[in-house]
Amino acid sequence: MTAAEKILQKALVASDIPSSEWSKIQAGLRDRAFFSAKVTEAKFLYAARQGVSKIAASNLSPSEVRRDLRSVLSSVGYQPEEGQEGSLQDLTSKRRLDLIIKTNVDQAKGYVSHLRATSGGAYLAFPAYELIRVEERNLKRDWSSIWRSAASRVSFEGVARGTSRFVAFKTSPIWKAISRFGNPFPPFDFNSGMGLRDVSKTECIELGLLKPSEEPPTPKTPGFNDNLSSTVPFDDASPNYAALRKTFGDQIQFNRETREIKWRSELFSEMFDPGHEFSIKLGQTSQTLIEKLPKSVSPDTMKGAHLTINERWLDKKRRDKITDHRIHFEEMEDHPEDIPLKKGDVDMLPSLWRNPDRVFEDKGDLVLEVDAIDGGMFRAIVKPRKSPVLKTFYRTTESWEDYLKKRMARHK
Amino acid sequence: MLTLKIKDPEKLLPGEREIVEAARRGVKNKVIEHLRRKNDSTSPKPGFPKSNYYANAAKDVASSVSGSKATVEINHPGVALHFFGGTVLPKKKALAIPLEGIVWDVWPSEYQGELHPVKDKKTGKAYLVDDSLGLALYALVPKVAIPSDPSVLPTDEEILTAAEAAVWEMVA
Description:
The complex is a heterodimer. By secondary structure, chain A is of the alpha+beta class. In chain A, about 35% of the residues lie in helices and about 15% in strands. In chain B, helix 2 packs antiparallel against helix 3 and helix 2 (about 15-40) crosses helix 5 (about 155-170). The longest helix of chain B is centred in the N-terminal third of the chain and has 26 residues, at about 15-40. The chains are: A alpha+beta, B alpha+beta.
């Protein structure tokens, strides 16, 4: 897995909680989320995830991504709170955007590097890490105290003693313990300037971490969520789950079959497994949608309506009776104006449903549109009723007006 | 009674893949350490913040193993250019070189003010200027020549030594 892929796998999670509250969320859940403190705008999160992954892949510069993100914020009418302009709380500020970019890029790179550091011959030759400063800072945290306190909490498991150096086996729980984010790899805090260097087996022996004839502890098999507390130790009956639901609403869901708590976006990515049945709630109609309804659609039809998507949406045959709606994830020769969806684009469905840019009515159906940051628009067609049904979802560069003109011309 | 167990030495030796992985890791560590030292020894231009360019390049050192071959890459923009040297040409009309610390890492397309091009009639040099600040923020140049800098990477000898040392670490 590359750093860019790691970023794109993350579930978009909008919330108005500050970073101090995010720190309390289970590390496994938090690591799988793409979020920013107090950011509720899904379009911004989508654009940020795209931009950050492109930086990780060295396809875009931070300057270009900052510019694009400010453009998205402007399009949704974002204004910083009075007195906070230019501060870290101001989403348009360079400080804030750089923090989002740097934290996410560095975490993804740290993750990928950690996977490779704990496997095979690499681990046998270099079984430990040393925490070192890799970038200077004007204001430095007291890493000595942080290390000592964490070492004590983990009972010095795998930690070198009798040295002022911060050395421990790669498998030691101290790495998660020193991390604000609960990850066993850097960054260990926002803008910390700290990083890791490999420590060889010989050095481990010199530091007393290993005896000469001893082997280092066997690392667990690396996996996507290895060492990240990926399983959430409570189920939907727990007050912890109730608290998550209160904070995140339908963005957090419990899968009764697998007994797992996941972000809704993660459920989206599982939709595509062949034969997989799913039922994912996108939430209740929002006031924004009600206000944008065309006059021909009665608000009473839609008030309080919950949209839930299931496998019938993907499996249902299109008008040609041959293809189903998975086709929208491929190039279509007869629809050159359409842009193939990526799996991560499904994250925009809740936004289409709850905060569309435009709403039209077409033969009794609702057409919902949201502009995409990198060209074209997302479009969903929903049958409006008390239990609405998603009929189709795709991405296109063709305006609704042009689509209607073409359709009329076809029928003449 | 003394029991002597004789193990097949071949079964005690690490496999080829483990050896290659160890060597790869040793070289990767060497390159990372080298880039971090280079970062420490680099000073910013007066009035500019430190870019930590080489520290960021160190984060982009990647490695992979395929059979008996290991590859270590630095996937960071500009590193190859600095190592080999070359000429940077603009995608459009000119390259914009920041002249003030406030636009370090800020491309003109991102700048949140009004910039307009001005040509100095005496020198013929062109700039992007923000009149509200009374400052020329960028110099507009047709190209930039970057000299080759072999110190961007460790020497071949250092790399080979690092690979050998890592393998010995593993088998010892």
